[in-house]
Write a structure and sequence with these properties.
The protein is an alpha/beta fold. 48% of the residues lie in helices and 15% in strands. The longest helix has 21 residues, at 195-215.
Length: 216
């Protein structure tokens, strides 16, 4: 059962792990450690190998425990594949009005990609649940603080160049969440099947976030 996007779980640790071209045989072990560490939300990108099967299997195994969505959704064809696989939410790299409006109509959370204040506001006005700002590290955390002064109702997700060392900077600047790709999934640990080490690394993100919350 795919279930629906669990906002409470996302807010508990607002980190989206972005899995692109992930080894299928390693994915389920990775998700087990991800869940065990206390992380809650995963995005599987549509430009991955066997993406429909990866999403469907992950949903079958973890859809009641993790938020599992589809990323790099560029058009309605991508969206159809993602939703038919059971994706619980959608992330796009661009503003595609048809994709956004379809998700809004179907009550599927949608996080479109945007960069400028005008793009951000347009995506939000079309009904985005949150707006993904990419590449976040290029503009820095200060950009989020500046944009959110006039656009204070908009919810932003910082994606691109986000790491264990800097992700709380974006949250401190007002971002509602962060998306982390390869910096959250150390390649060697996964290739070598060092699951305990991977779990400890995931837990570092959770601990860092918990410390950030306590310091506010």
């Amino acid at each position: 059962m795919a279930g629906i996007f669990n906002w409470e779980a996302f807010r508990r640790v607002p980190v989206i792990g972005i899995m692109r071209n992930f080894p299928e045989e390693k994915m389920q072990n990775t998700l087990a450690e991800y869940h065990k560490a206390g992380l809650t939300t995963i995005e599987i990108t549509m430009n991955s190998n066997n993406v429909k099967e990866c999403i469907a299997t992950s949903i079958a195994n973890w859809g009641d425990k993790l938020n599992i969505g589809a990323g790099t959704v560029c058009d309605l064809d991508d969206l159809e594949v993602a939703l038919s696989a059971g994706a619980q939410y959608i992330v796009t790299p661009i503003i595609n009005e048809e994709v956004i409006k379809t998700c809004v109509k179907k009550n599927i959370p949608i996080f479109p990609g945007a960069f400028s204040p005008s793009e951000i506001y347009k995506a939000w006005s079309l009904g985005a649940s949150m707006v993904k700002v990419f590449p976040a590290a290029r503009v820095g955390a200060g950009f989020f603080k500046d944009v959110l002064q006039p656009l204070n109702k908009v919810k932003l997700v910082a994606t691109g160049g986000v790491t264990l060392e800097n992700f709380t900077d974006f949250l401190s600047a007002g971002a509602s969440g962060v998306g982390v790709g390869s910096n959250l999934f150390p390649k060697e640990m996964i290739e070598e099947g060092r699951w305990d080490d991977l779990g400890a690394f995931f837990h570092d993100f959770v601990k860092q976030y918990q410390q950030f919350v306590k310091s506010k």
